[in-house]
Amino acid sequence: MSILRVTDLDVRYGQFRAVRDVSFNVEQGEILAIVGANGAGKTTLLRALAGANPVKAGTVHLSGTDITHMPSHLRVASGLALVPEGRKLFLDMTVEENLKLGRTVGRMGDWTVERIFETFPNLVKRRHAATGTMSGGEQQATAIGRALMSNPDVLILDEVSLGLSPLVVDQVYASLEGLMTTGTTIILVEQDLSRAMAVADRVVCMLEGHVVLDSPMGATTREAITAAYFGTAPQGEHA
Amino acid sequence: MTIHRWTWQSKLAFALATGVILILALVPTFATDSVIERLTVLFIYVILAAMWNALAGYGGLVSIGNQLFFGLGAYMTIRLADAGINPFAAMLLGAGIIAGLSWVLSLFMLHLRAGEFAIGMWVLASIAHLCVNLDPLIQGETGTSLISLNAYAIADRRMMIFWAALIGMVGLLALLFAVLRTPSGLAMQAIRDNEEAADSIGVNPMRTKRLFFVLAGFGTAVAGALWLAQVSAFQPKTYFSVQWTAYMIFMVLVGGLGRFEGAILGALIFFAAETWFADTGVWYLIGLGAAALLFSLLLPKGLWGWIATRTGVSLMPLGYRVQMETPSK
Amino acid sequence: MTNILIQAVLLGGYYALIACGLAFMFQVMRVINLAHGSLAVVSAYAVWSLSDSFDMSPFIALLAVVPVMGVAGWLLQRLVLERAVRGGELLPVLSTFGLAIVLDNLLFQQFGADTRSLSPFVGDLSWEAFELPGGIYVGKLPVYILIAVIVIIGGLDLLLKRTALGRQIRATATDPDTAGLVGVDARRAAGIAAALATMTVAVSGAALGLRGTFDAYAGAPQLLFAFEATIIGGARSLWGVLAGAIVLAVAQSVGAQIHPQGFLLGGHVAFLIVLFIRLALKGKAPLRLAKIARLTRKGAAQ
Questions:
Q1: In angstroms, what separates the C-alpha of C28 from chain A's closest C-alpha?
Q2: DSSP bridge partners of C16
Q3: H-helix or E-strand spanning residue A202
Q4: Which residues of B248-286 are buried (b: 16+ CB within 10 A; e: fewer)?
Q5: Chains B and A physically touch (3 or more Cβ atom pairs below 8 Å)
Q6: Of A215-224, B163-172, B307-316, C209-218, which gets the smallest average pLDDT?
Q7: Which fold has domain A4-238?
């Protein structure tokens, strides 16, 4: 059984349908990349999965449980954690305080504050610094660490490379490498197609709220993804 | 596609309103004394509601201290009348002075955020109350009265106060209406929704807020002066009581925050409630407070807002309506 | 002079007690609760009723009233404030004001116009004093109140900074949406914060009754004192509220020295001055003060 099942999801902002009839499944341990232009509905979709945006129609199942209308903090307790777009750290709290917050739900697992610092060594010297004073890369590391502290089964990363220099993004992905081998299911939204193709097992491409491509990475090509991205592909490419 | 400001309903309402005003002007010639007095009170309530609504509904500035202007308007009238000025002139002049004071106050009060502004105005009202108490003419809480008004015979006095109140109400409503139709007025309705957005289209939020703050100050001061003329007695505690704000809030919340028609509707409802329930003592006040609480939570747009959203009716041509031409086959 | 200052500091302790609940709720929920003063008076009447009916010490009665008020705060948050805050910044002001009117008048309906006091129930404590060197007498009760407020503010401060619950409350205050995404039950955190605030209000209500008298409409002046103390202290930290409260009390005492009616005015004037200075420093008042502040900062930076 897929660990995450999304069926005919419809998410709206007022009258505007940001996510339309989106369906896909994610298997345990899979790394899924969601790509698409700005405004395609990626962040809205992720926030709906995490419980921050209300769902108009459709369902979301996590490990068989229907979480469609569950409030966000209960989804974290069920094992689904989101690293939000723009980091959204609590800026007047320190790194350690932000991390400890991630522990609120008290799920069992391997992630502890110390282990986060081992995974992201650049944070060690900033342990007691207010996160508002840190660089983008450090903030991103903290945000990821905060989500990991809840020991999620499914980790969702929304544009971790946003606003970061390529070198820093390399570092962030290097740190994530270890994570990606532990068997945690990961969904990531990534603008940089090369990076997405390098790390992901499967790719879903969104355009204007619809899913226009859903394929294992091996079964598709860069050209096909690009075509779907810009909407020049023949409709309905599913594998 | 055509754009127009007047609908047939608003034209009709305008005609009706003009008719009503003319009839009201003639009321003193045929109505009983108590009717004249009660209508005067109603006019004052309409002014209070419209002015508080101008500030809160259009300007987004919720003030718990409009009794500041109410009390000062009455106080100024007493002071000017004491200096020998004709009482009716004193009322207008006094309100004008208070308008100037509001302008000065706006220079710093308008920089406060919502909650701070609300109570800040209340603090100002307390300060005014305390200062007025210090004036030997007022004799502290004992108060005094608008003695010079006694120069007029009671029947004449009643009629003149009625007309003063009617003119005051119509004048202030017309002024408010005119302001709301100007670009600044539309801006104010825009600011209510989003200050940053208004700023970005070149609308100056501070200037428009100031305009409404001064207008509300002036209008509420007029109401205070009229109330003084009506009851003649001035005790600071009564005029500077926060109860006046409670009345204003009730009228505007129930009638419709940010709706021109709403303030008038709210005043009518309040007037009716007061006429029927005022002798139940504190239960009346408890009812007012509870109504304000419930309306703010459940029906924040008030009764008129509810009606307008349901039916799309707008009696006052304050916005623009876009009408799509239906293609003819 | 020293005596006046000491009395002012003790009065400031009382103001801080009533203010810290208001400030706490403002920090956490971004809401100024206009029913704050009325809730204090409700607590005062509750303590009075228990003391009167069961002939018990107000301190014992308070032990029962505090948790009840805590529940009331929780309900206030869930039933009123949660909804009101969704409607924007204006609505909570209107809702809490309506609530204040309801509470004040219900109290009047129930208890009438007579003023009450808790002093009769504590016997000698209401006038007993410590003797300090220099022949200065400080009332025991005001000292206890000052100690209480220091303990309460210290406790709340520690709670916010050192505990998991405190972090949850701070996170909810900063960004309730993201707090949920991290696993914090924002509604629960806000409810607990409101409960904590109203529990301090309960204590301040008892203090009000012990220090002097109260009646059904005493809530409004208490609200204004709490508000002024909070603003003077700068609504950032709870210790700032204590400082602001003392400044308010000192200003009132100074005002009383200048003119027999000057007590309240002194406090109001101090409030306005602080407000003015703060706005001028932000460059928002049309005064040269803003320019001076900018130049001073530039000069300091060189």
A1: 14
A2: none
A3: strand A202-207
A4: bbbbbbbbbbbbbbbbbbbbbbbbebbeeeeeeeeebbb
A5: no
A6: B307-316
A7: Rossmann fold (3.40.50)
**pLDDT value of position B215:** 93
At residue B312 the predicted structure's pLDDT band, cuts being 50, 70 and 90, is low
Chain C contact present for B56, CB below 8 A = yes
Residue range B111-121: average pLDDT?
A: 86
Chain A residues close to C164, C-beta within 8 Å: 100, 103-104
Question: Stretch B222-250: mean pLDDT, rounded?
Answer: 91
CB–CB of C224 and B64 under 8 A?
no
Q: Taking residues B241-266, what's their average pLDDT? A: 88
Chain segment C236-282, per-residue pLDDT in tens: 789 999 999 999 999 999 999 888 888 999 999 999 899 888 888 87
SS3 readout for chain C:
CHHHHHHHHHHHHHHHHHHHHHHHHHHHHCCCCCCHHHHHHHHHHHHHHHHHHHCCCHHHHHHHHHHHHHHHHHHHHHHHHHHHHHCCCHHHHHHHHHHHHHHHHHHHHHHCCCCEECHHHCHHHHCCEEEECCCEEEEHHHHHHHHHHHHHHHHHHHHHHHCHHHHHHHHHHHCHHHHHHHCCCHHHHHHHHHHHHHHHHHHHHHHHHHHCEECCCCHHHHHHHHHHHHHHHCCCCHHHHHHHHHHHHHHHHHHHHHCCCHHHHHHHHHHHHHHHHHHHHCCCCCCHHHHHHHHHHHHHHC
pLDDT for the residue numbered A142:
92
- Chains in touch with C (≥3 Cβ pairs < 8 A): A, B
Cα separation, A61 vs A69, in Å, equals 10
Interface residue C108 vs chain B (CB under 8 A)? yes
- Two tokens at A100? 């400890």
What are the residues of chain A with a beta carbon less than 8 Å away from any beta carbon of chain C?
A: 50-52, 71-73, 76-77, 81-82, 84, 88, 90-93, 97, 100-105, 146-147, 150
Q: Hey, are the CB atoms on C98 and B108 less than 8 Å from each other?
A: no
- The answer to whether C99 contacts B289, with C-beta atoms less than 8 Å apart, is yes
Give the confidence band of A219 by pLDDT, cuts at 50, 70, 90: confident
Confidence of residue B309 (pLDDT cuts 50, 70, 90): confident
Amino acid C297 reads: R
Q: Which residues does chain A have within 8 Å of residue C185's beta carbon, measured at their own beta carbons? A: 71, 73
- Lookup: tokens for A209: 């709220």
What is the rounded CA–CA span in Å between residue A133 and residue A94? 9
Contacting residues for A37 by C-beta, under 8 A, at least 6 apart: A207, A229, A230
- CA B58 vs CA B191, B208, B314, C278: distances in Å: 8, 10, 16, 27
- Exposed, middle or buried, B193 (CB in 10 Å: 0-12/13-18/19+)? exposed
CA separation for the pair B151, B149 (Å, rounded):
5
Is there a contact between C179 and C6 (Cβ–Cβ < 8 Å)? no
CA dihedral over B62, B67, B73, B76, signed as positive or negative: negative
* Residue found by looking up tokens 């008030």 in the block: B302
**Overall average pLDDT of the B96-111 stretch:** 92
Kindly indicate whether the domain formed by B2-323 is annotated with CATH number 1.10.10: no
Q: Which residue of B has its CA nearest to C113?
A: B282
pLDDT of residue C290: 47
Instruction: Tell me the domains of chain C and their CATH numbers.
Output: 2-258 (1.10.3470), 264-302 (no CATH)
| Average pLDDT of chain A to the nearest whole number | 87
Whether residues C102 and B290 touch (CB distance < 8 A) is answered with yes
Residue B223: predicted pLDDT: 95
